[in-house]
Design brief:
Elements lengths: L1 E4 L6 E4 L4 H13 L2 E6 L5 H12 L3 E4 L5 E5 L8 E3 L4 H11 L5 E5 L10 H6 L6 E5 L2 E7 L7 E4 L5 H12 L3 E8 L4 H13 L4 E4 L3 E5 L10 E4 L4 H14 L2 E4 L12 H8 L2 E4 L3 E5 L7 E3 L7 H9 L4 E5 L11 H11 L4 E4 L2 E5 L2 E2 L2 E2 L5 E4 L4 H10 L7 E4 L11 H7 L4 E4 L2
Parallel strand pairs: 2-15, 3-14, 6-7, 10-11, 18-19, 24-25
Antiparallel strand pairs: 1-25, 1-26, 3-5, 4-5, 7-9, 8-9, 11-13, 12-13, 15-17, 16-17, 19-21, 20-21, 22-23
Helix pairs in contact: 1-2, 1-3, 1-6, 3-5, 5-6, 7-9, 7-11, 9-10, 9-11
């Protein structure tokens, strides 16, 4: 799919899409909860669909209700198939692998696209310590596992991704583990662990967090509960970050449906917008943003690496040189995101330098005058966030910008281009 974005002003109100981080965790918890779960405001992204398919393969019954919510009925992990496919979802492969290992059945876990290039050495190293026979393809997919997983006191490396820990927390809780701890060294993306713990608490699970260094299980795990659990999926700060940056660049908009008290890591986009000097009004149920002259900023994205793409789009319209920390977190995304951002924004006339763990973005300014970005043809690298970042950056370009492989947005935010159109963006879509 090719999307052609014409220079446009944006204006109006938009409802944030559902958070796939919350949705996927809710699916996992609903599988592990013995009984019924109602998931309100479910997401519809490819990653969300992958999570729904996985829990069905692992034994849950999922049905859509008239009000748009989902009902999940589960008796725990009881696979209906010996193969599980995670699509391109990094969270799904890392979270559901320990969960799937709760059963005695041998299972093959696979994925597609960029997921085939993401390292899975973690499972080769950790799962055997939990009595799970594990075999990968030299540290990559497919994975073969044979449980059942037996909780034990272990120490894990948290530097690659917090998603591995999320899966272990879920799986250990499902066994009602007691007097057992997971010790974590160099944990990254701590807010995502906060989110995991919040979802678990919604399902009655209590885990003691000792300053993100040790997680203690007290026996208060998932249990049979005849009362239906209702879980409402929050609006997605990751997707909304692009809308908020669009407002800061190209017009006055209001984004609704975001929880300003959320544990989602990408809520920090508000800090970046504030530091840049964008016009910002933060209310409990809506965020208003409008253009003002913006200046370069310094931002640490180590714990929220998914913000790099919208931050680069924002920095492109700031006077001066912006510095973003945390580049080491970008290598194992849907693309090597640092290189992809550098290459595609160069086509738009924006210089992006990489120096160790720093990304340096030269704002488009000459003296006190902001130079617009160039008309160009760019490529998403099949990365949803690259597609969205270039689309937002294109709003004040000198001419139209074409985005190839723009259907990558379906991974997290299928309604993104429709939402841009609702805000007044002139764009055309060609299916190729």
């Amino acid at each position: 799919m090719i999307v052609r974005i014409h220079p446009s002003a944006v204006q109006g109100n938009i409802q944030a899409n559902a958070s796939k981080s919350c949705m996927q965790r809710a699916c996992a918890a609903a599988l592990l909860h013995i009984g019924k779960t109602r998931i309100i405001n479910p997401g519809n992204s490819f990653d969300d669909q992958a999570a729904i398919d996985i829990i069905q393969k692992l034994g849950a019954k999922v049905s859509a209700l008239e009000d748009g919510s989902l009902q999940v009925i589960s008796n725990g992990v009881a696979p209906l198939s010996n193969a599980i496919h995670c699509g391109e979802s990094g969270l799904s492969i890392r979270m559901f692998t320990p969960i799937a290992a709760l059963c005695e059945q041998q299972l093959t876990i696979n994925g597609s696209g960029s997921l085939l290039k993401r390292p899975m050495h973690f499972f080769d190293e950790v799962m055997p310590k939990l009595s799970v026979d594990t075999k990968s393809k030299d540290g990559y997919l497919p994975l073969q596992i044979n449980g059942p997983l037996q909780p034990a006191n272990i120490t894990i490396d948290g530097s690659l991704s917090s998603q591995f820990l999320t899966g272990l927390l879920m799986a250990f809780a499902a066994t009602n583990a007691k007097d057992i701890s997971i010790t974590v060294v160099d944990l990254k993306s701590k807010p995502y662990i906060d989110l995991t713990l919040e979802v678990l608490e919604s399902f009655g699970v209590k885990i003691v967090n000792h300053q993100y260094e040790r997680f203690e299980f007290t026996g208060n795990g998932f249990s049979k509960n005849e009362q239906e659990i209702n879980y409402t999926v929050e609006g997605d700060w990751s997707g909304a970050a692009f809308l908020l940056v669009a407002g800061a660049i190209a017009g006055s908009i209001t984004v609704k449906g975001l929880n300003v008290f959320s544990s989602q890591a990408d809520k920090k986009i508000l800090q970046a917008l504030s530091d840049a000097g964008a016009g910002l009004s933060i209310q409990e149920k809506q965020i208003e943003v409008r253009p003002l002259p913006m200046k370069a900023f310094h931002f640490n994205a180590t714990d929220c690496p998914d913000l790099f793409p919208p931050l680069v789009a924002l920095a492109a319209y700031c006077e001066g040189t912006t510095v973003i920390e945390g580049v080491s977190r970008l290598q194992h995304k849907e693309s090597n995101r640092a290189i992809s951002l550098q290459a595609e924004f160069a086509k738009l006339g924006v210089e992006v330098q990489l120096q160790g763990d720093l990304m340096i973005v030269k704002g488009m300014s000459e003296g006190n005058q902001l130079r617009p970005l160039k008309t160009a043809s760019v490529h998403s690298h099949h990365d949803h966030r690259i597609a969205m970042a270039t689309a937002v950056a294109a709003l004040k370009a000198t001419g139209p910008v074409e985005i190839e492989a723009a259907d990558a947005i379906n991974k997290s935010y299928p309604d993104f281009f429709m939402h841009l159109q609702q805000l007044g963006v002139d764009l055309s879509i060609t299916n190729n």
